[in-house]
Amino acid sequence: MPDFIKRRRLARMIDRTAAQVADVEWPERGWIGSVRQALGMSAEQVAKRKGVSRNAVYQAERSELDGGVSIKQMQHLAAAMGGRFVYAIVLDARIEDMLYQQALRKAKRLVLEERDLSSWSPDERQDWIEDKAAELLHNFPADFWEDGTVSEQCRTTETSL
C-alpha cells in the first residue's frame, strides 16, 4: 500500500479520535484521584487490587499532577479501578488542513526562487503556488516539514506573498 494511502488512513483515524476527545476536561485532582474518589475507593483498596502499598497509590496521584506518572502506572491503576487508560495527541487542526497549510507555506517560499518572478502577474503567482502546493502534497518530499514550527504554522491560515 502506498505511503500516501497509509498517511491518509492514519490522518482520518487521528482526526476522528481527536474530535471525540477534544472537549475532555482534566480533573483538578488528576485522573487517578478523581476516578478513585468517584468510585468511593480508598487508596488502600486500589493498592490491594494493584499489589502495591497505599503510599504508592498516593505517590502516583501526586506524580500525575506533576506530570511524572508513567503510562504503565496509569494503565495498571486504571485496571485496578476497573477501567483502562487511554491517551492521545490532540492536534490544534485537522491533519489535512495542517498539511495543506504547510504545502502552501513551502510553495510560497519556493516561488521566490523562480526566475522571471517579477514578470509574473499576481494570478500567475497564485496559480503557481497552488499547483506547487498540490505537487508537494502528492509527492510529500522528505524536507516537507523542515521549515517553520507546526504550532506557528497552524495559527496562520492565510499569509500573503
Distance between the termini: 37 Å
Basic shape: elongated
Total DSSP E strands: 0
- Largest sheet, described in full? none
Mean pLDDT: 89
Strand content: under 5%
Helix content: 55-70%
Indicate how many domains the architecture comprises.
2
What sequence of helices (H) and strands (E) makes up the elements? HHHHHHHH
The tally of helices reads: 8
SS-based structural class? Answer: mainly alpha
What does the radius of gyration come to? 24 Å
- Low-pLDDT stretches are 153-160
Structure description:
There is one protein chain. The chain is an all-alpha fold and 161 residues long. The chain has two domains: 23-80, 434 Repressor (Amino-terminal Domain); 95-155, no CATH class. 63% of the residues lie in helices and 0% in strands. It is built from eight helices and no strands. It has helices at 3-21, 30-39, 43-50, 54-66, 71-80, 95-111, 122-139, 150-155. Helix 2 (30-39) packs across helix 4, helix 3 (43-50) packs across helix 4 and helix 6 (95-111) crosses helix 7 (122-139). The protein is elongated, with a radius of gyration of 24 Å. Residues 153-160 have low confidence and may be disordered.
